[in-house]
Amino acid sequence: MPKIFISYRRKSWGFTHRLADDLRERLDAEVFVDTDSIDQADFERSIVTHLRASDAVLLVVSETTFADSIHRDDDWVRREIRETLTLGLPLVLVCVDGLLPPSGLPEDIKDIARRQGINFYPEYFTPAVEKLTDFVTRVSPVRRKGITGSASINLAPDTLTASAVVESPPERTIDGKTTLDEALKLLEDGDYNKAIFLLDELRYSGFKSRFVIIEDLLAQAQQHQELAERRRTAQLEYEEISALVKRRFAREQGLKAFRQWFTDFSDLAAELDTENLRTAPSSTTSLFSRPVDGSMLTPGSRRTDDKGVPMVYVPPGTLLMGSTSQQVNEAVAQAKQENKDAKRQWYERELPQHEVVIASGFWLDLHPVTNEAYARFVKEGGYKERSFWTPGGWEWVQSNKKTEPKEYDKFGDPQQPRVGVTWFEAYAYCQWRGGRLPTEGEWEWAARGPENRIYPWGNTFDANRVIYDKNSGGKTSPVGSGVRSSGASWVGALDMSGNVWEWCSTLYQPYPYRVDDGREGLEDSTNVRVLRGGSWWNYGSSVLRAPFRNWFLPYDEGFDWGFRCARSYNSEF
Fold it and tell me: Are 448 and 546 in contact (CB under 8 A)?
């Protein structure tokens, strides 16, 4: 008979006793719930004795579980957690209504919550109990065989990591199609927690679909849920800070807290800073008079550099770089409709999708570099100044006696993007500007943003927002502030899809992308470098997707290749 100990708050009494009754019936288990199991003559000894004899400990958590008790060592729930961890007992978080406390979890169980937590919803109570029952079935033989210590026991099937053989629980059967339809509806409604629960049930049951990859759908749902939770946290913190700023004696502290909040949630600031605290003056001196570190700049803030080129501010953040397997499948299908010669391997370069941290904010040209802007570089001796060039680039200039880029007919308008430039030339121009080429990670972050858009403007292709083969008239289109503004990215960068491919600083290597693995080295002058964004010449909207990757040799040039520059956030303008 399995022995289960349940730790809970009085506010969760009704839920806890329903759970205890279910577990007793399903497992014929001995369930300790203090109100009906405790020895009133020796309260503390009774609790500890039952806890130490348990096969598993269930911690029932709700929004208020740790609101006032995280730092109170005399709190009974905290004492039960501490004793559980000391003994190495399996601990499972049972989340009422699928919600973790907004005030956060104690540090010692945060990692356990990620690995060993079950969401309970009224409408999905039974499958959640079944999952919990499976867990207890797996772990109780291990405990009875005397295996102790903090073995990690994951709630996914077949992942018990302890040195004992445990019989697998009986398989559960579900109506896969109905459950999938319900999960998809929840995703559309933005109820990500419940959708994740059902998708996890599908994965657990082994359900397969010809058209949907459950693992990819679950990953997408988890990404959206994390973003929603981040937005929720930002909103709660903002409301607390706003209340401080409105009180005279706490104003300075509130404004200081807001500076940190703005740094942490810069991508959400434009939406959530409803009281415009960004411009609120301090009682003594303005905290926001000159943003020297980028922390008080909003996404898309504009400046013009000393060469007269407009740039937009891109804040730091976390990018989901590349595409999921499902997105690649969709892109391939889309490509085959538009180009019978499209190859699957073109799109598999986007795999696997992975998280990349853009640690620092930076400035990015509003639009691709124009003929007019590049002509100034040539006129001011750009091809004669060695300091602008990489060693390989300077050798290329000297051996080829280069004094200007390659010219093409129909591409000479001053406001057309500069084409015919090699990676060497693009790099040198950006150095002359006091900047650099963007990394591949920075380019994709500026194009896709925290919403992980497929195109800079959204997830659906719109020919009116982009220049490509079907509307280009066989050449590039002039650029400028406000030109094709409907196709702007989340930071207001223009023409990041179509018109011209754009050189990045990065050597082309398979994913996952890492900024410190050598691919951002400048010494290599022979291997291929990355181009992004698609061009006027490419046919097919799939190539114009923001995650699509292209590459050519650093000394190659073409009539559909251009570039734009980046500058670190602390650059002087």
Answer: yes
**Secondary structure of 337-356 in the HEC alphabet?**
HHCCCCCHHHHHCCCCCEEE
pTM > 0.90: yes or no:
no
User: Tokens in use for 46?
Assistant: 């009774």
Spell out the long-range contacts of 174-182 with Cβ–Cβ below 8 A and sequence spacing 24 or more: 174/127, 174/201, 174/202, 174/205, 174/207, 176/202, 176/205, 176/207, 176/209, 179/207, 180/207, 180/209, 180/212, 180/214
* CA–CA dist 442, 449 (Å, integer): 10
Say if residue 54's pLDDT is above 80.
yes
pLDDT tens-place string over residues 87-138: 888 888 888 876 655 456 777 777 676 667 788 877 778 778 888 888 788 7
DSSP 190-214: T-HHHHHHHHHHHHHHT---SS--H
Give dist(CA 32, CA 38) in Å, integer: 8
Which single residue is written with the structure tokens 């400035």?
A: 363
What is the C-alpha to C-alpha distance for residues 61 and 80, in angstroms, rounded to an integer? Answer: 13
Kindly give the residue spans of alpha helices, DSSP state H, lying in 61-175: 76-87, 110-115, 125-144
Q: What angle do CA 277, 282, 286 make, to 5 degrees?
A: 90
Residues, the chain: 573
- Amino acid identity at 364: L
Counting Cβ atoms within 10 Å, is residue 107 exposed (0-12), middle (13-18) or buried (19+)?
A: exposed
Which tens digits make up the pLDDT trace of 94-103? 888 766 554 5
Short-list 560, 444, 452, 447, CA closest to 505:
444
Beta bridge partners of 529: 507, 552
Q: Of 538, 526, 559, 284, which is closest to residue 409 (Cα–Cα)?
A: 559
pLDDT at 573 over 60: no
Tokens of 480: 């400028």
Cα-Cα end-to-end distance for the chain: 73
* Residue 160 DSSP symbol: B
Q: Is the peptide bond before 438 cis (omega within 30 degrees of 0)?
A: no
Looking up tokens 């292709």 gives: 461
pLDDT in tens, 161-202: 222 223 334 445 567 788 888 888 888 888 877 787 778 778
| Best CA proximity match to 276, nearest among 247, 241, 309, 302 | 241
The two tokens of residue 446 are 């500026």
The single-letter DSSP state of residue 531 is: E
